[in-house]
Specification:
The protein has about 290 residues and is mainly alpha-helical. Helices cover about 35% and strands about 5% of the residues. It binds iron/sulfur cluster (SF4).
Length: about 290
C-alpha cells in the first residue's frame, strides 16, 4: 500500500469501519508559550497548500510545511488531498449541530475521539500539574457560550482575574511568564485541577505532552507536546466555520457574559465547587 493511501486511511475512516491502530501522532520539540487555536499574528498567512482552510491551526501549518520539504510533489499533493477530505468531513459533521452549546459539546466529543489515538503513548499529563492552565487559551464562540452558561448557572469564577486577563493583547508577554498566578485560568481549582473538566475547551483536550510536567513550568524547558494531525484538522474546521469567531478564553467569556461594563471585584474562589450541568448536555456524535 502506498503511504498516502495508508495516511488517508488514518485520516478518513468511515462510519462502521474499524479505527486504524496506527496514528499520525508525533512529538515535537517546540516549546509552547501559548496554546492558541490559531496564529492571529499580524501578517501571518496560511500555508498556500492549506488555502482551502480559512483558519488552520499553527500546528497544522507547521506540520504541512515540514512535510512539504520531505515529500515528493506527488506525495505532498496526496497528503493535502487527505487533509482536505478530513477537513470537509469534520466541517459537515459540525454543521449538523446547532451553533452554541450543542456544537461545542459535539466538538468536544469529536476531539476526544481523535485524541484517543494517543492513549498508548507515555503521556505525562496528570491531574494537578496544571502548567498549561496558565497559558493563553483560545476558544470558539460556541465554547464561550458553553462556559457562559456554566458561570451563569452558578459556577463561581474570579471575575477580577477574568477582567484583568481579558484586557491583555493577543500573545501578551504576561502569558509567557510561567508560574505567574495572574495567569491562572479562572476554571482552575485550588488543587490544580480543572473544575469544568467534562466541559473544558477543545484546545485543552488536545494539549498533551510526553515530557516531565515540571518542564511545562520551567522557562525554556524542552517540552515534548504530542500533536495529532486529525485533532489539528478538526480544530481548524471548528474555527473556520462560516461566521465562527474565536479568541482568548478571558476575552470571549467576558464578552459572552456581557460583562464589559461591570465593575471588577466580585471575587469568589474557583476551587471545590460542583459544576452545574449545562442545559444542552452531551450530544451524540455518530460517524
Ligand atoms: S478550562 Fe480547565 S483545562 Fe482548560 S485551561 Fe482552564 S482549568 Fe485548564
Amino acid at each position: 500500500m502506498h503511504w498516502v493511501d495508508w495516511a488517508c486511511g488514518l485520516l478518513i475512516d468511515e462510519p462502521g469501519q474499524k479505527r486504524p491502530s496506527r496514528t499520525f501522532a508525533y512529538s515535537s520539540t517546540t516549546k509552547p508559550t501559548s496554546i492558541p487555536m490559531t496564529n492571529a499574528s499580524a501578517g501571518t498567512q496560511a500555508h498556500d497548500a492549506l488555502a482551502f482552510i480559512a483558519k488552520p491551526t499553527p500546528q497544522l501549518r507547521a506540520t504541512i510545511a515540514a512535510q512539504e520539504s520531505l515529500l515528493s510533489s506527488t506525495d505532498f499533493a496526496g497528503l493535502i488531498g487527505c487533509i482536505r477530505s478530513a477537513f470537509d468531513k469534520f466541517t459537515a459533521k459540525l454543521l449538523e449541530f446547532a451553533p452554541g452549546i450543542e456544537r461545542a459539546s459535539a466538538l468536544h466529543e469529536m476531539m476526544d475521539r481523535e485524541i484517543g489515538v494517543v492513549a498508548s503513548l507515555p503521556l505525562s499529563c496528570r491531574m494537578g500539574c496544571s502548567g498549561c492552565c496558565h497559558y493563553e487559551v483560545e476558544i470558539t464562540q460556541d465554547e464561550a457560550e458553553s462556559l457562559r452558561e456554566i458561570v451563569q448557572n452558578g459556577f463561581p469564577i474570579d471575575r477580577q482575574r477574568l477582567y484583568e486577563q481579558s484586557t491583555r493583547e493577543r500573545q501578551d508577554a504576561a502569558w509567557g511568564r510561567l508560574g505567574n498566578p495572574a495567569n491562572r485560568c479562572v476554571f482552575l481549582g485550588n488543587a490544580g485541577a480543572c473544575q469544568i473538566y467534562e466541559q473544558r475547551p477543545a484546545i485543552c483536550r488536545k494539549h498533551l505532552v510526553t515530557s516531565s510536567p515540571s518542564l511545562c513550568t520551567t522557562q525554556g524547558g524542552a517540552v515534548l507536546p504530542v500533536q495529532v494531525i486529525l485533532a489539528e484538522i478538526l480544530l481548524s474546521a471548528a474555527t473556520s466555520l462560516e461566521g465562527a469567531t474565536f479568541g482568548s478564553l478571558p476575552k470571549m467569556l467576558r464578552a459572552a457574559l456581557q460583562n464589559e461594563n461591570a465593575e471588577p471585584g466580585a471575587d469568589v474562589s474557583a476551587g471545590g465547587h460542583a459544576v452545574p450541568s449545562i442545559s444542552g448536555g452531551r450530544v451524540r456524535v455518530s460517524g
